[in-house]
Amino acid sequence: MPSQYSPQNWEARLLLERSRAVKCPDIATQLAGTKKVQQELSRMGVLEMLLPGQPETVARLHATFAGLYSLDMGEEGDQAIAEALAAPSQFVLKPQREGGGNNLYGEEMVQALERLKDSEERASYILMEKIEPEPFGNCLLRPGSPVRVVQCISELGIFGVYVRQGKTLVMNKHVGHLLRTKAIEHADGGVAAGVAVLDNPYPV
């Protein structure tokens, strides 16, 4: 449960959810976008339950997943922590937060896992297999910074519009994309954090 929510925040959210207002997002959709739910969706058998009779679709979706691991208390979480401590360069520790600059890598991740490993607080994080994209040379344009070619990596985000009324689907479609590029020297951080820049894909 988010500790930053005061009782008044919860009352306001409950009032909003009970109202006839259009929620963007409603609480169910907001929870569906959390890293914990993404990790649970990656478990074998979950997509099969949600997409019955569609084994090819399930296989295509599973092929896009990086490894996502629960840190819930118990043997499964203990094993995930042990593997991350043994090979920290291969994992990322992710809290349930957005906006860039929140993920932990390398020694910072090791220190956090050592602190969290015997605490129930660890269940509010997930471990993810670290993605290793191929770096490329590019110029990042920022105010007050010299223009020079640096080694970069990019992350492509796809925008979608999803509208429903109760359980009735009204709209679900792709409406655009966002490409963020950053120098490889930065492990984490988005555009808002001042690390990445907006970019344009060049389809080939």
Computed structural class: alpha+beta
Strand line-up of the largest beta sheet: 4-5-6-7
Instruction: Tell how many strands the DSSP assignment holds.
Output: 7
CATH homology superfamily name of the largest domain: Glutathione synthase lid domain
**What fraction of the residues are assigned to beta strands by DSSP?**
25-35%
Which residue ranges are poorly predicted, with pLDDT under 50 across at least 5 consecutive positions? none
Continuous helix count? 7
Q: Specify the CATH architecture of the largest domain.
A: 2-Layer Sandwich
CATH class group of the largest domain: Alpha Beta
Overall pLDDT = 91
Distance between the termini: 45 Å
Give me the CATH fold name of the largest domain.
Dna Ligase, domain 1
Bulk shape: globular
Helical percentage: 25-40%
Order of helices and strands: HHHHHEHEHEEEEE
* Total count of domains: 2
Main beta sheet, described? 4 strands, antiparallel
Q: Which value, in Å, is the CA radius of gyration?
A: 20 Å
Keywords:
7 helices, 7 strands, about 200 residues, three-stranded antiparallel beta sheet, ligase, alpha+beta, Glutathione synthetase, nucleotide-binding, Dna Ligase, domain 1, glutathione synthase activity, about 25% strand, globular, D-amino Acid Aminotransferase, Chain A, domain 1
